[in-house]
Write a sequence for this structure.
């Protein structure tokens, strides 16, 4: 399982935006589960669960961790593709922080764990780039403390 999945297209975003699918993801986050296991836990028809699993699988949100044969039936065990899933900032065509900002500068508020996951993702992305790619990243990091009043 990857640490971070960045959603880069609207179809992926649409597939994960459904509250029921988010619930399925949460249920699979602890351990791999089959569609039947999920249907039994939710007390829902297996066909409904399998439809949503197929949509998540089609868009790369979940993967098949392993299969097992039980009474001549091949069972597929599903897990989320990554521990953390975030949407690419450009997917929604956000506006920059101000009119004078670079159009690709955004302010993110992350906890330590999410920051480290993002940093690891960017490091891996940098390692995957070939010499002909001219992409570059500028990241300003500001550590703040949030206090509840």
């Amino acid at each position: 399982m990857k640490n971070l999945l960045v959603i880069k297209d609207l179809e992926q975003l649409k597939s994960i935006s459904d509250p029921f699918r988010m619930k399925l993801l949460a249920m699979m986050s602890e351990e791999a589960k089959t569609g039947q296991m999920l249907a039994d836990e939710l007390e829902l028809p297996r066909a409904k669960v399998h439809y949503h699993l197929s949509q998540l699988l089609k868009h790369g949100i979940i993967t098949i961790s392993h299969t097992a044969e039980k009474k001549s039936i091949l069972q597929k065990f599903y897990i989320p593709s990554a521990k953390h899933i975030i949407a690419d900032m450009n997917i929604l065509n956000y506006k920059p922080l101000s009119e004078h900002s670079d159009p690709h500068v955004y302010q993110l508020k992350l906890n330590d764990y999410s920051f480290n996951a993002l940093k690891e993702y960017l490091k891996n992305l940098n390692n995957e780039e070939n010499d002909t790619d001219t992409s570059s990243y500028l990241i300003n990091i500001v550590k703040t403390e949030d206090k509840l009043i």
In short: Residues 56 and 62 are 6 Å apart (CA to CA). Residues 112-128 form the longest helix (17 residues). The beta strands are 2-7, 62-70, 73-80, 82-87. Helices lie at 10-17, 19-28, 35-42, 46-58, 112-128.
